[in-house]
Design brief:
By secondary structure, this protein is an alpha+beta fold. The chain has two domains: 73 residues; 198 residues, no CATH class.
Amino acid sequence: MYETAVNQQTRTEKLGLGEILVYLTLIAIAGMFAFQTLNRGGVGNSILAKMIILPALMALFNARKRTGKSLLALLITFMVFLVGVMFNLTIGLPPQAPVLQINESKITLAETKASDLMEAGFDIYVRQGDGGSDYEDLLTDGSFQKYPGDKTVTIEKGFRLDSNAVPYAPFLLVKDGIVLGSISFYGAADKDVVLENSKVIQVRFNKESIKAAKEHSIVFKLDKLDLTSQLELPLVQETFKKHLWSIPPTSTKDVTQLWYGLQWLSNSDSLFWNEYYSLIRLDENYLMTDFELACQIARDE
């Protein structure tokens, strides 16, 4: 049965390179039209897409004598391809995580650990009380204490982002005595984890910390874009492209409307892959005044 011919073709030699290119070109063209048809939606468009792509596939199949074994192989290949397409449409590929750079040190959310930061020369300060402090006094009035890296602080199980302003945050990120902003960590979904082994899931800068960083020649970059420079729309669009989902109005006197929204999403809505978000607030000169980069851990909403 497997060796029985299933078409009228008598040629059995292998396809030449030229023939293969011709058939692949036909399939690619048909595939493009079929994909465009599917994107239009509608009940009958899936049937129409099959009618577009099927002749090109059958032309390749019938180019040589085929047996039942060949037909079975084709069906298996088609099913694998179909599963791959459905997987991509429903789940998609994981988004490329944005990289936050502070001078030469790079931070990737959900990958970089607290221990990596300390090895890179950063200090982590832990909040000691409930009261807030002025920026200049954050490290000197007892509100925060430098973490010595002795595994005495643990991150509670579960995922949570911090909504507090920088002076009220649980943790501060400090470099050479300069408060750069606040930082949040994630350990595990089902157990507490020591701070050293916990991963960064959120970084925030405020107006005071951004000003201090500039005064001390500390540069912030997001995917190689210098955040301490003037963030004009063409530059931001060129850098982030499809990840830029919100831009400031073209003409407004309301400075609260001057912000960029960024997102790195997947089709799975953080069910299978991590997702990332960023908000960059600006002044009237399009200079950054506030920054947040956060992620949503997959399967831990």
